[in-house]
Amino acid sequence: MIICLGEALIDMVPCGGEAFLPLPGGSPCNTAVAIGRLGVPVKFLGRFSRDFFGEILMKRLGENGVGDDLMVRTDRNSTLAFVKLEPGREPQYAFYTEGTADRSFSAEDLEAKLPGGNLPPGANCLLFGSIAMTMEPAASTIESLILSQGTRGDAAPVISFDPNIRPFMIRNREAYVRRFETWLSAVSIAKISTADFDFIYPGLGLEQSLERVLSLGPVLAVSTLGAEGAAALLRRGAETLRVSAPVVDLPVADTIGAGDTFHGAFLSWLEIHGKMSRRAIAGLGTEELGEALWFANKAASLVCSRRGAEPPTLAEVEALK
């Protein structure tokens, strides 16, 4: 089972003129939906508003098989993210987060749902990241769980991190990068886009950026490359394995949720194939890692062929050749 942590918000998507359509979103929320649609057990740990936007989020997750017993309800408002879409450009966002439900996820909430930091039976992966790690107290709450779980050695769950950076949410880049590298010390998998690397390690280049990430703790570093697919570096003792995979050539409607779907599909492949442990990931061969990347790229290609973050089912991914 995979547990997702981070923001769950409402994307206000343009729907003609000056009008916006409210749609459930947030990177970890989208990833949880992607995992659920692929038939892998998944839960979401975080705070949700009792407002009507919160009900939309709860319904979205529930309809896609995401367990709700780790969710905390609150009277605080839901976070809103207004999206600007332009042909040939990445989506642009304006976030409204002050005092909102997901941002307010606290140490008390964490203790109430995971007493003593103990994960529920069957939980073998924690997924975290995105703008939640730029907002307090949610960032410190999630950080405390990740760092404590990362020190458990062989008993530690797989911890997978997607920074999904929105630069305008980060006031001090140097401070964020220091904290980012602290999180990496507890992480098993780092999934980082080239746009993220441009912010974190400007001018370093993809290969050196991936190598730096591996040097800080993860077993596996994966980078999504847009239309060029994905590349991964896997640390196997003294050796480093390099693998890449292409995307599928499908018409692109938009790229909303592409990285989230890739992340969820990659982790789902590991779970489906019994590879969800740090030891098993370190033992992946070139062919297996290539299969996992290809599976995730197929899922991401399918979501890009649709409007909005609408991840595919397992049958749809398997049918795509």
Account of the 3D structure:
The protein has 321 residues and is α/β, with parallel strands linked by helices. It has one domain: UDP-N-acetylmuramoyl-L-alanine:D-glutamate ligase, CATH 3.40.1190.20. Helix content is 36%, strand content 22%. The chain has helices spanning 27-37, 52-63, 107-113, 138-150, 173-184, 194-200, 206-215, 258-272, 278-282, 286-304, 314-319, and strands at 2-5, 9-14, 20-25, 42-49, 66-67, 71-74, 80-84, 92-96, 125-129, 158-162, 189-191, 220-224, 230-236, 239-245. The strands form two sheets. Strands 1, 4, 5, 6, 9, 10, 11, 12, 13 and 14 form a ten-stranded mixed sheet that branches. β2 (9-14) and β3 form a beta hairpin. It is globular. The relative contact order is 0.14. The model has no long low-confidence stretch (mean pLDDT 94).
Short précis:
This protein has 321 residues and is α/β, with parallel strands linked by helices. The chain is 36% helix and 22% strand.
Looking at CATH, which topology would you report?
UDP-N-acetylmuramoyl-L-alanine:D-glutamate ligase
Number of helices, where a helix is a run of at least 4 consecutive DSSP H or I residues: 11
Structural class, please?
Answer: alpha/beta
Please tell me the CATH architecture by its name.
3-Layer(aba) Sandwich
Strand content: 15-25%
CATH superfamily: Ribokinase
Number of strands: 14
**What is the 3D form?**
globular
- Low-pLDDT segments, ≥5 res: none
Largest sheet: 10 strands, mixed
- Overall tally of domains: 1
CATH top level label:
Alpha Beta
Q: What is the CA-based Rg, rounded?
A: 18 Å
Estimate the helix proportion, in percent: 25-40%
> How far is the N terminus from the C terminus?
27 Å
Taking all residues together, what is the mean pLDDT?
94
